[in-house]
Protein: Proline--tRNA ligase
Organism: Paractinoplanes atraurantiacus
Amino acid sequence: MLLRMSTLLLRTLREEPAEAEVPSHRLLLRAGYIRRAAPGGYTWLPLGKLVLDRVAAVVRAEMEAIGAQEVSFPALLPREPYETTNRWTDYGDDIFTLKDRRGADYLLAPTHEEMFTLLVQDMTSSYRDFPLLLFQIQTKYRDEARPRAGLLRGREFLMKDAYSFSLTDDALAATYAEVRRAYQRTFARLGLEHTIVSAVSGAMGGSASEEFLAASEVGEDTFVGCTSCSYAANTEAVITPAPVPVSRELEHLSVHDTPDTPTIASLVDLANARALDGRADWTAADTLKNVVVTVHRPGAEDELLVIGVPGDREVDMKRLDAALAPATATLFDDFAARPDLVKGYIGPQGIKVRYLADPRVAPGTAWLTGANEPGRHAINVVAGRDFTVDGTIEAAEVRAGDQCPACDGGSLTIRRGIEIAHIFQLGRRYTEAFQVDVLGVDGKPVRPTMGSYGIGVSRAVAAIAEQHHDERGLLWPDEVAPADVHIVAAGKDGQIEAALSLGAALREAGVRVLVDDRPNVSPGVKFTDAELIGIPRSVVVGRRLADGFAEFRDRRTGAREEVPITDIPRVITSALG
Amino acid sequence: MLLRMSTLLLRTLREEPAEAEVPSHRLLLRAGYIRRAAPGGYTWLPLGKLVLDRVAAVVRAEMEAIGAQEVSFPALLPREPYETTNRWTDYGDDIFTLKDRRGADYLLAPTHEEMFTLLVQDMTSSYRDFPLLLFQIQTKYRDEARPRAGLLRGREFLMKDAYSFSLTDDALAATYAEVRRAYQRTFARLGLEHTIVSAVSGAMGGSASEEFLAASEVGEDTFVGCTSCSYAANTEAVITPAPVPVSRELEHLSVHDTPDTPTIASLVDLANARALDGRADWTAADTLKNVVVTVHRPGAEDELLVIGVPGDREVDMKRLDAALAPATATLFDDFAARPDLVKGYIGPQGIKVRYLADPRVAPGTAWLTGANEPGRHAINVVAGRDFTVDGTIEAAEVRAGDQCPACDGGSLTIRRGIEIAHIFQLGRRYTEAFQVDVLGVDGKPVRPTMGSYGIGVSRAVAAIAEQHHDERGLLWPDEVAPADVHIVAAGKDGQIEAALSLGAALREAGVRVLVDDRPNVSPGVKFTDAELIGIPRSVVVGRRLADGFAEFRDRRTGAREEVPITDIPRVITSALG
């Protein structure tokens, strides 16, 4: 490959594009890798297409290395299979739906569990056909409420989705582990530093799932690690350790006037000032905060729900949504319509709305909470005695320093990450929905169990850009760089011809070359563009061409070296290993 | 590459699939290359994906060889650009449209002229940036009224679409010629025998266009060739040669009772029986048939139109649609609502509906036609004297033996073909719509002129299958076969192990291998499957393995040869050239 910048469709931007908030988006736009074509839809320009193809090639190679077989499904699919599994409804507004000219319902598929299940039903009949591991690298669609950050959250994107079919739970676990290792190899090759964390399965269903999160400050996901064990989880999936049971004698519930205490802080101040219950050591953690939300369940009426959490914590709406999926929740604020819910003074005792509480609100715990009357609170409100919960829910915020749920004495740290992959042990949800049975070894029917494994291919390009850039531009890992070497013709005294002839020689040696042969661009602009574009190494053919020298530059280390131009091919090929 | 049939997702079908009408569809289903996933939407199974990728690779390589640059656009696009060029309306029901969660209009793009034009507007500014030739290989959507014949006419399909931008008409013509030659090389490599014919531009717009039609009896297009010159055209685009002017004196129009002559045949019989005008040599060609159609123009009211053609020809509805595009027409039959149109007795004299006639109905020609009264016809109805036409239209059927419009004395032959490519000199329709101007050499703004060039990549797979099969199965050209060699393990006395080890050795030599290592399948079934799958050459490891021999088979010629198994790699690599 030899690309010439004199003819390449490339226009680097000096200014920061107004539309871009995060470094990867900004740099991919500025360096001419992508352009916005639609809300949440991007065009891959020639350099971007090369990077995307290289990322996809690594993903494909590692899938093929574990025996996965590549297929390709349509993106435009009929409603019926998704109706059978309820996902047509569960996904709600998150999927694009449309009607064809005859009025039949279609969707642009967000993932293909249904179709792979039907294919396997069509093409297999006996235990001899299993296990099966199939994948595709295909355009996916999601009608994101808030497409953002360029390729990080788009509405049309490239995914590698894979599906496994096994006859036993052990076989599924083994395939799951194999794909997990293949993903680790994939991301190692792509230069993506990542953490594998426990995750929530969401609308996909299934029992267990893990996410691969690429560490990044601009990531939408937060995840925890433990200071002393290997526990790691998406914040959405963090489980709150059960509280230590309290053995002390509990007083009777009593109600007190607490005027003008609609907030936890004002309530704690008043409780200490008045020495309620004879104490002056009240903290927010002693109070029970009750948050009213409206739950939106696709295909059903909205309903009210009250969430109880210790008053020193907020309700984390992402954790709440994860716990309620496929339903979602929004804060309720129409208190005028519900006089039974006294804003700022709600307590769980006698509440007429469905009530779910944080695991810390365990039976036997006592709380300072609202008395369901304006300006009044109650103390010694005991869970299981004065009120009962309709269930527990993991919706309270997770904080750095929280106790690790997996070990004794460890505490949690929190980081941000970009979800670059998600793997699921789905189980038999889909094979049951379609009643897939095959002949077992013993002659009896067996229902296969499934795994589902996704990598965001276009998102991975952005994640790599997030992890591999500096203030001057991008800095691609070798495995995904659009070219191996960037030759800059810095001068007009034969430098362009020399650069092109060096490029041709390198191409003959199998090196992928970009030559900046633009005749009307200054060396300074060319150097700036080269750093912005971020090819790992460059060769400057400049003034010393007359002496037979060129300069070899390493983008990452900044090292520069004068090298006889005839030696360049040897230097490059040895640098490429 | 080494694929093992014992694990490959492949199930060949013995029976003819009920859904398939044409050989390519039947064989691609039976041999396990594709499966239907939706109306007009197909899944590529592992072998099919390999063929599709190989076809795409040839298309890509030939585009890159002429300096075309690959990009990739979203398929889901906002309405506005397509509104600007009127295509949102012109395509009518032929495109899939949808709304996002906010109610904004989107379409699944059928082609991308608008987006490429906007991209070039964004990324260029001066004559130095031109010419530009860009392409993508991308999934396209059309809401076909009648998806049929598997991959030949689907609603979701893979296309290579390319767009050129030039500053002068000559430069456009040169690029057009270069792409045309690249397409000829592409189809030669793909083994597609084809004819390049003049075509109609349709909703795309533009001045000149040609189609590449792969000869096939199941093709939807018919095209003509000339027996004595190089003229070739899609039947839709055939121009009727102007008739030789008649110099004889013309009689006055006279009306005659012609009871019970609603058809041309009955009219001619009666005219001869009664010796109308003193003649008994009336033929259908002397009569003028007037066909009433309803014209459906996207975004407008339906309107009536009468088409006049010589009575020995039918109106060809495809030619009519091509002439009216983007409008379409259907036969009108509600004569009760229009008493002025006397069914079976319509004449153009005094007609109150828009009237377009075949070019043969030239000024000065005289006709036997309806008198606009039940049971009456008129003779000596002279065009230009007794009636005037609102225009001419190319809607009469084209017949083998018709006079060639391009030379003297040649006559037309008719064949069927599959449209595998269409190339257009679009001109400035799109750059005008978006007001694209760049700085010219002389400092003045220049408006670029465009070409657009499409290859149906998935359709090409089907076209290859149509041209390369026999009664036993498919027979792929080397360049696109899913593997180079198919090794059949015919026996259980070490044949499977020997076949696999031969396969491994061939893979090391860079040969792409499919091994039939299925342990529970008889040699007969394996041979049948091998012929169905259609890999160009196979090696049978059978009974003579004990003597160190295998059989080399050529699928195309049927030749078989016993070869020492140690010689097989040499035989294969020499066969592969």
Q: What stands out?
A: The two ends of chain A are 18 Å apart (CA to CA). The CA atoms of residues 358 and 394 of chain A lie 6 Å apart. Chain A is about 25% helix and 30% strand. Residues 23-70+110-238+414-466 of chain A form a domain with the BirA Bifunctional Protein; domain 2 fold (CATH 3.30.930.10).
